[in-house]
């Protein structure tokens, strides 16, 4: 028996489009949208960068897991995950058992173009703020993290490339696929 789809999880590396595509997709589906990182920031009254700096990544990952477990019981929800959320087995189990996982895939070069000036990303903040950051430094770090995370991302139910398609077309394509899945399970 197929699982009933009540939640759409958007996963992928940072800047792959999760927080941009998510609210539009939710609107098209008539569902609610939440961004896991945003929920954590609002709860902690700190940015993700500040949480990493003051409380550590382990504290952040515990919050992330706890909120994910809570949201996994919701219905009609599109949830944008953090770039690393899915790369933990305990989170992956929740995701696989409670919803449809969509991997928004971007190439290292496109991620670099989108991230090179963003200071709100803990694992790239030092490069962005450095005196003369070089593209190869970003690409190497992106590839390092992608090599660890992509085996998890590839376990998603749906894979969508976000590099060269505009947001509207991506959302339309994704909504059609999701509606087919929803109709097949009803």
Low-pLDDT residue intervals, each spanning 5 or more residues: none
Order of SSEs, N→C? Answer: EHEHHHEHEHHHEH
Shape: globular
First-residue to last-residue Cα separation: 11 Å
Q: How would you state the average pLDDT, rounded?
A: 91
What is the C-alpha radius of gyration, as a whole number of Å?
16 Å
The SS-based structural class is alpha/beta
Oligomerization category of the chains in this entry: single chain
β-strand percent reads 5-15%
Q: Count of DSSP helices?
A: 9
Give the total of beta strands.
Answer: 5
Largest sheet: 5 strands, parallel
User: Helix content range of the residues, please?
Assistant: 55-70%
User: What order do the strands of the largest sheet run in, or round the barrel if closed?
Assistant: 2-3-1-4-5
Key terms:
186 residues; alpha/beta; five-stranded parallel sheet; 9 helices; 5 strands; 56% helix
List the helices and strands and how they pair.
Blueprint: E1 7-11, H1 18-29, E2 32-35, H2 36-44, H3 48-55, H4 57-71, E3 77-80, H5 89-98, E4 100-105, H6 108-115, H7 125-129, H8 135-153, E5 158-161, H9 167-184
Parallel strand pairs: 1-3, 1-4, 2-3, 4-5
């Amino acid at each position: 028996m197929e699982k009933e789809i009540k939640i759409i999880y958007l996963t992928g590396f940072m800047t792959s489009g999760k927080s941009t595509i998510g609210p539009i997709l939710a609107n098209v589906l008539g569902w609610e949208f939440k961004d896991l990182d945003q929920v954590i920031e609002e709860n902690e009254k700190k940015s993700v960068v500040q949480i990493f700096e003051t409380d550590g990544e382990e504290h952040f990952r515990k919050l992330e897991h706890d909120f994910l477990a809570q949201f996994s019981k919701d219905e009609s929800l599109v949830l944008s995950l953090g770039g690393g959320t899915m790369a933990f087995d305990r989170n992956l189990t929740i995701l696989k058992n409670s919803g449809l996982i969509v991997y928004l895939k971007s190439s290292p070069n496109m991620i670099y173009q989108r991230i090179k000036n963003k200071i709100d990303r803990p694992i790239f903040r030092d490069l962005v703020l450095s005196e003369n950051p070089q593209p190869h430094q970003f690409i190497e770090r992106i590839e390092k993290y992608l090599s660890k995370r992509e085996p998890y991302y590839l376990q998603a139910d749906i894979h969508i490339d976000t590099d060269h398609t505009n947001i509207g077309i991506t959302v339309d394509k994704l909504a059609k696929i999701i509606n087919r899945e929803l109709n097949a399970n009803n």
